[in-house]
Amino acid sequence: MIRINGENTDLDGKLLSEYLEEQSYNTMRIAVERNGEIVPKASYSSTMMRDGDSFEIVTFVGGG
User: Fold this and answer.
1) How far, in Å, CA of 64 to CA of 56, rounded?
2) Exposure string (b/e) for 34-59, b if CB count within 10 Å is 16 or more?
3) Rounded to two decimals, what is the model's pTM?
4) Mean pLDDT for each consecutive 10-residue tract of the chain (64 residues)?
5) 59, 5 in Cβ contact below 8 A?
6) Full 3-state SS string of the chain
7) In the beta sheet, which residues pair with residue 33?
8) How far is Cα 28 from Cα 44, in angstroms, rounded to an integer?
């Protein structure tokens, strides 16, 4: 199982970029943390989601 924003899901073997695209995330407006470390945007397409990983995805919202 993989934990994403506090919820368990079965995504073992999926690329992070694939998951983000499927969920319609705008990669220019998010930050991703994997197991406590920031994932550089350039690494999204090479980051394999593995059993036991924990991800936090934060979306930036503009306002005034």
Assistant:
1) 25
2) beeeebeeeebeebebeeebebebee
3) 0.90
4) 96 96 95 98 97 95 72
5) no
6) CEEECCEEECCCCCEHHHHHHHCCCCHHHEEEEECCEECCHHHHHHCECCCCCEEEEEECCCCC
7) 38, 56
8) 12
